[in-house]
Amino acid sequence: MKAADEASGAVEQAREEREERITAGAGRQGQLELIEERAALDRSERERVEGQIASLREADAAWTAETEQLRGRIREHEAAASSARRELDEALAERTNAQDEATGAQRVLDDERERGRRLEARLREEGARRDEMRGRIEDLRVRQAGLQQDAEHLGQAYIQEFGRELTGREPRTPETGEAPDLEAMTDELERRRALLERMGPVNVLAAEEYDEHQERHEFLTGQRSDVTESIESLRRTIRDIDKTSSERFVTAFREVNENFGHIFTELFRGGEAEMRLMDEDDPLDCGIEITARPPGKRVQNIMLLSGGEKALAAIALLFALFQTKPSPFCILDEVDAPLDDANILRFIDMLKRMSADTQFLVITHNKLTMQAASTLYGVTMEERGVSKIVGVDVDEMHPEQQLATA
User: Fold this and answer.
1) How many structural domains compose the chain?
2) Mean predicted confidence (pLDDT) in 352-377
3) Environment class of residue 214 by beta-carbon count within 10 Å: exposed (0-12), middle (13-18) or buried (19+)?
4) Residue 176: in which H helix or E strand, if any?
5) How far are the Cα atoms of 135, 144, 145, 165, 297 from residue 139, in angstroms, in the given order?
6) Would residue 236 be called left, alpha or beta, if left means φ above 0 and alpha means ψ between -120 and 50 degrees?
């Protein structure tokens, strides 16, 4: 019995040890599974981290390449900017030279105009002296012809009365003062008689013709004097008109220039612009230079601006003219084509404000500009070769907008 009890105790102890070992094995199995699960998580985390490291390396390589490209583009932009600065400096130098040449040419032109005025005055003086000399010569010729006729009549009357030629103190030649040869005088007398015979009888109406010509000469002289006075009066009128036109032009130019600066600043949301006369002493014949400075840029000629900036500056100048002197209506043809949406909205706001004094007819393909219109007109072709104009009154379709605007 004792041996059986000992054997039973040994079996129980063995069972307990077996249970403990099974329990310990199960715990170790759970720990092993937990360790394997953690190992799998560690492996997946390591793979994820390695993938992130590879992605970061690829991104770093891409960023490095993009950085090199950006550096290259920066170098290209710097080179282009340097080239543009050089071209701008050259253009400014050329413009300065052109202005100097224009100034020199203007001075030469002024000198030539002054010279022309002096020559014209001298020509008038010489013409007056020439007319005076012609008149004196004609008077002397008429007087000489009258004296010659009187002398011949006296000689003929003396011969008929006394049967011989008139004798007495012999005439002296004007060249030497000596008495002429009798034979030479006889030949001269015969020559003059023959000349008188060829001339025919004496014209008894010569005095009346002379009076008529004298009267006509006085009439033409008076007419010439009237024409001269009219020319001088016209020149004075032209000078007065030029003076008045210059004053009005300068006044209007200053007003337009001021409005242009305000509207330019409003459309560009900053910056400044102005117009300058190339020659303030001659405003009617000189050119106009327009300079502008958009926000963030320096002052430059309007021709150096971009296409959109040029269009917006031209619109500002157009609105400045209409603001200075409003017109009943205005037609704008594709003026908003180079503008972007932001500038289109500014253009529309200014257009609505100006429409209080001016009716605008805008030809456009821009949807934003069409949305701001009160009436739309389009051309459609319902039948081939037949065009039809279609109009839509937007205010009638949306009366609530019109009431809200009012």
Assistant:
1) 1
2) 86
3) middle
4) none
5) 6, 9, 10, 31, 81
6) alpha
Q: Which two tokens stand for residue 288?
A: 């106009």
Is there a domain that residue 39 lies in? Answer: yes
Nearest partner of 332 among 353, 349, 315, 313, judged by Cα: 315
| Element (DSSP H or E) covering residue 21 | helix 2-162
Listed as own residue / partner, the contacts of 136-144 with beta carbons closer than 8 Å and 24 or more positions apart are 142/210
Q: Is 255 within 8 Å of 274 (Cβ atoms)?
A: no
DSSP state for residue 299 in the 8-state scheme: -
Joined tokens for residue 302: 């309007």
Complete DSSP assignment for 191-235: HHHHHHHHH-S--TTHHHHHHHHHHHHHHHHHHHHHHHHHHHHHH
The answer to whether residue 293 scores a pLDDT higher than 70 is yes
Cα–Cα distance measured from residue 109 to residue 115, given in angstroms and rounded to the nearest whole number: 10
Residue 87 lies in a domain: yes
Residue 8 belongs to some domain of the structure: yes
Token digits of residue 134 = 């012609």
pLDDT of residue 182: 57
- Identify which of 297, 295, 305, 362 has the alpha carbon closest to the alpha carbon of residue 335: 362
Question: What does the alpha-carbon distance between residue 248 and residue 242 come to, in Å, rounded to a whole number?
Answer: 10
- Taking Cα atoms as reference points, which of 340, 396, 391, 333 lies closest to residue 368? 340
- pLDDT at residue 357 greater than cutoff 50: yes
Q: Which of 332, 340, 300, 295 is nearest to 314 (CA)?
A: 332
- The span from the CA of 395 to the CA of 404, in Å, is 11
Residue 42 lies in domain: 1-107
Tokens of 151: 């002398």
Tell me what the pLDDT averaged over the chain comes to: 78
- β-pair type (359-363, 329-333): parallel
Span 116-171, pLDDT tens digits: 778 778 777 877 877 787 777 877 777 777 777 767 766 676 676 556 665 544 44
Relative to beta strand 329-333, strand 375-383 is unpaired
369: exposed, middle or buried (Cβ count in 10 Å: 0-12, 13-18, 19+): buried
Indicate whether 334 belongs to any domain: no
